[in-house]
Every structure is written in C-alpha cells, then in structure tokens.
Design brief:
Layout: H1 2-27, H2 53-56, H3 59-117, H4 123-147, H5 161-183
C-alpha cells in the first residue's frame, strides 16, 4: 500500500496547486495579448492607370489612387495603435507576473503552515500540503496562464461564470481528497524485522 500513499501525496500536491492557479486567474485575471489589426489595404488599381499619364490623371484612376492612400493611412494608424497597445500590455504583464509570483509564494507558505499543523493528525495530508506549497510557489504563474487559455483576445479578460464554476469544482475535489487522507488512508509504518529486534534477557 506504500505506492498508494505516494500517489495520494503527489495527487494532493498537484490538485491544490492547480486550484490555486485557477483561483488567482478567476479573481485576478491576467492581461491579454492584444490582437494584431487586420489590414484594409487592397490594391484595386488596374495596371491601365499607369500606362499613360492621361490614364493616370483620369477621374476613375484618381479616385482609386486616393482610396488606396486612405487605406494605407488607416493601416499605418492601426499599426501604431497596436504598438502602443503592445507596450501597455508588456508593462501590465510585468507587474502582473510580479504580483502572481507573490501570491504563489504566500499561498504556498499557507499550505506549508497548514501541513505542519496537521503532521500529528495525518502525515500523508501534511506531506501532500508541503508538496502543494512547493509546487504553488514555483508554478503559480504557469498555472495561471494555463487557466487563462480561454480568455478573449482583446483587452483584459474578466472572471466569468465558467471560471467560478471551474474553481468551485476544484475546491470541492481538493476538500474531498484531503478528507480521504484524513479519515480513510493509513500511513504505512515500518516494521522492524524480528532478527533486528532487541532480545530480552531473563535474569539469572
């Protein structure tokens, strides 16, 4: 049964760290990468407009040339706005990463403290909580990114109903796994072989 206990510790550490990532992503959503603007430029000027100066100065060709210039200016403005949005995103993302790492370390420390408090009641749960503390402190930023894969492609994603439902399911599973460790699983105690047990001498 020792392998079951090891799997339990590993599973508890993983599910608690994933729950933490989903929880932070739900209540503190990360900034979303801005979408690259679509181009409205379309070269619709026929080659005949460039065949002779008279054709180029005709009313239809001049109208097409002016339309093309307007589209080029619009595309240039969109690219400039995209570059500004990217700079804003990078600034926000740097601050978000720093705060997310802080949350991971803080919540990981809480898991470790709770684990140390439960070490006399259940070594399995305590070990799983300590593992969860380590995984949470190290992997929270990555787990938040995985939890935010379904976010929209523009702006900052808000925490919707689905995010709260996913978090609720993970919380219920985490509590259930901890309860199983506290009340169902037993620690495997090492048994000392009879040959290594101290022999009692009878008094003479």
């Amino acid at each position: 049964m020792k392998w079951i206990n090891r799997l339990y510790v590993l599973f508890l550490g993983i599910i608690l760290s994933i729950t933490t990532g989903f929880g932070v992503a739900a209540f503190y959503p990360q900034p979303v990468w801005p979408a690259y603007p679509s181009s409205t430029y379309n070269n619709t000027i026929p080659q005949s407009c460039y065949s002779t100066p008279q054709e180029q100065s005709s009313l239809d060709c001049q109208r097409l040339i002016q339309k093309q210039q307007v589209e080029q200016e619009q595309d240039s403005a969109k690219r400039q706005q995209y570059e500004a949005d990217m700079q804003t995103y990078q600034n926000k993302n740097s601050g978000y990463t720093r705060t997310a790492i802080f949350f991971g370390i803080a919540i990981g420390a809480i898991y470790a403290i709770i684990g140390l408090g439960l070490i006399k009641k259940s070594k399995l749960v305590a070990t799983g909580l300590l593992l969860a503390g380590i995984l949470t402190a190290i992997l929270t930023r990555i787990l938040i990114s995985l939890a935010s894969l379904g976010a929209s492609v523009t702006g900052t994603s808000g925490s919707g109903l689905i995010a709260y439902m996913e978090l609720g399911v993970l919380l219920i599973l985490s509590v259930a796994v901890i309860a199983v460790g506290l009340y169902s699983l037993k620690e495997v105690e090492s048994i000392t072989p009879a040959s290594q047990q101290p022999t009692q001498r009878t008094p003479t």
